[in-house]
Amino acid sequence: MAYASEQAQEKRRGFLDPRTKLMLVLLLAVFVLGGLGGSTLKPVKTVLSALPFALLLIEGKTGRFLRGMIMLGIGYGMLAAVGVLPGVLRHIALMCGGILTRFVVTVMMGEYLISSTSVSEFIAGMERMHMPQAVIIPMSVMFRLFPAIGAEWTSVRRAMRMRGIHLGGAKAGQVIEYQLVPMMTSTVRIGEELSASALSRGLAAPVRRTNVCRIGFRIQDYILLAGGVVTVVLWVMELCGVKLW
Question: What is the pLDDT of residues 162-174, one digit of tens each?
Fold first, then answer.
């Protein structure tokens, strides 16, 4: 089969190994979103913040890249306007800008992970890490859940827009009732269906599963993994009182 050939698998292979992507998500969540390391690791955090956008461009996800850049620009614009805004608006801009500049970067890394990793690649990577089935099954369901919810949300919005129920429409007051309530019920249904699908495909079987997708560390993975180790070492040195810069 062409799908199982070595050339086809190499073509389908992502730029990074799934384990490297998980490491990057963890680093950004801890150091950028969580603020670990304070201002001492600011140069490192700047590099980490640029990684998701560079990876999105490498994978050809220009739409997600532009959306993330716009949100990040709004956040930095709010921070730049803090000095000229009066009173309460200054505090609101500072809070919203700080949240956006940290949150958007981590969300973009999560979007890159989900959009560039198939479920098979993710499961293969988790099995290489010897993770238990109690972790692999829920996370593999989550990988399929978010795209399914996005497609369902688009369908619900399109159906309600045809009936004039949308922000700015004649029935804007019914948006919450007629869009969010169907989404809540659909999310529960989708989660149950995906869980049943995962179990029916043998994810919970007590035997070792085989996988046709190719994963493995390459030069770019080793470089990013080494960067992650350096980041943790710098943080430990900062905790020990070593002057870094």
Answer: 777 766 555 656 7
